[in-house]
Amino acid sequence: MRMRSPIPKKHARIEIIPLIDIMFFLLASFMMVSLSQTHMKGIRVNLPSPTSVPRPPDQDKSAIAIRVTEGNQIYFDNAPLLDEQILPRLFEAFQANKEVKVSISAEQNALHGDVIRLLDRVRSSGITKIGYNIKTAAPAGAAP
């Protein structure tokens, strides 16, 4: 007579989820190792130096850089300019070259209203190509 064992017999099962986890781990490991072995090589580029020869004032300019500092001090191509001289200079530049571009930058302590007032003056002079410089023009205390 055959008797059944009171202990249940377990059948072997292959679990797929732990295998998937191990495969993802191996994939990530191989990717990290292969990326760390790549050597980035670049091309040497001769960048322009920060010092440049100033242009003669009678030459037509295609771009004007205007900077606003703390206290509404305005620099027109790195030359300080009084508040009432800005609009005539912008009109002169627009009359000399209808395609003139203006780049406006402001230092960190410059007031937002001063920059907007300058932008209104640039627009009222007829200039439509206006860009904004998002870097600080010069550190505080540095020469303009």
Keywords:
alpha/beta; five-stranded mixed β-sheet; Nucleotidyltransferase, domain 5
Please provide a written account of the structure:
With 144 residues, this protein is α/β, with parallel strands linked by helices. The chain has a domain at 63-133: Nucleotidyltransferase, domain 5 (2-Layer Sandwich). The protein is built from three helices and five strands; from the N terminus they run αβββαβαβ. It has a five-stranded mixed beta sheet with strand order 3-2-1-4-5, covered by helices on one side. The chain is elongated and about 115 Å long. The termini are far apart.
What's the CATH class label of one domain? Alpha Beta
State the oligomer: single chain
Task: Tell me the series of helices and strands, N- to C-terminal.
Answer: HEEEHEHE
Query: Whole-Å distance between the termini?
Result: 107 Å
| Mean pLDDT rating | 81
Helix content: 25-40%
Q: Segments where pLDDT lies below 50 for 5+ residues?
A: none
> Under CATH, the topology of one domain is which?
Nucleotidyltransferase, domain 5
Query: What CATH architecture of one domain do you see?
Result: 2-Layer Sandwich
List the helices and strands and how they pair.
Elements: H1 17-36, E1 63-68, E2 74-76, E3 79-81, H2 86-96, E4 101-106, H3 112-124, E5 129-133
Brief synopsis:
The chain has 144 residues and is of the alpha/beta class. The chain is built from 3 helices and 5 strands; from the N terminus they run αβββαβαβ.
